[in-house]
Amino acid sequence: xxxxxxxxxxxxxxxxxxxxxxxxxxxxxxxxxxxxxxxxxxxxxxxxxxxxxxxxxxxxxxxxxxxxxxxxxxxxxxxxxxxxxxxxxxxxxxxxxxxxxxxxxxxxxxxxxxxxxxxxxxxxxxxxxxxxxxxxxxxxxxxxxxxxxxxxxxxxxxxxxxxxxxxxxxxxxxxxxxxxxxxxxxxxxxxxxxxxxxxxxxxxxxxxxxxxxxxxxxxxxxxxxxxxxxxxxxxxxxxxxxxxxxxxxxxxxxxxxxxxxxxxxxxxxxxxxxxxxxxxxxxxxxxxxxxxxxxxxxxxxxxxxxxxxxxxxxxxxxxxx
Length: 321
Fold this sequence. Notes:
Number of strands: 12
Number of helices: 10
Strand content: 5-15%
Distance between the termini: 119 Å
Shape: flat
Strand order of the largest sheet: 2-3-1-11-12
Order of helices and strands: HEHEHEHEEEHEEEHEEEHHHH
Largest sheet: 5 strands, antiparallel
Structural class: alpha+beta
């Protein structure tokens, strides 16, 4: 006769499994499992089979075993998981790409196939009843009166006149709302694992980090460099990015002093010369303009030469024997 394991034996086995997974896997997804059924959980396990393991359990038990394992291994990084174990959550240990695993988890969402939407459920999204014919007979208008939904009788059936926000996100579903959704055959909610946080090599971060691409990282790095450079310039502290600007500002200051006083140096002499005789600006700009116009003139001359040659060839071709 096979004896069933006791609660103590189950806890010991769970402790060994959790400790083994913590030692073997360095990446963990913390997922919310609200309203996830056993069949759906089985499909998720099957979809992640190969490089990931799904572990469910009571939060208090998981916290206790993680805390003990962190003490035994002298690895306090495991303690970062403790604040994440709040509510109805589970752990997905994986060796695969975190973004790909999170996308696989997101695919296994199903509609609420129960007859009515469950009373007391916290709505994950806004529920809006669209206008139109409901197919219900006039004797069932009482379902629409409690939520104050404007209706009219059209061809012997109840018709909703305008769209109505029946339930707001975060509100609990009441009995009247659940009954109305059941009557209309509306099942607005989808349920599945929702990734809340990511544990990767002793670091914890939110799921949004996985959506960052290389351009986002470059942009954030550039913004950080700009802030560091601005701070360094404000306090006149030399850094690798601020030194070119510091030299440029220093040169402008020295040049300003040289122009305002009799002190001078080679670069300042040229500036003073231009300021003393502004007409030299025109003289200096003329060669540049001429150099820019020269290539255009050469191109036009070449086009004219090609046109003349083609005309001569055409004339010779007409009068050849």
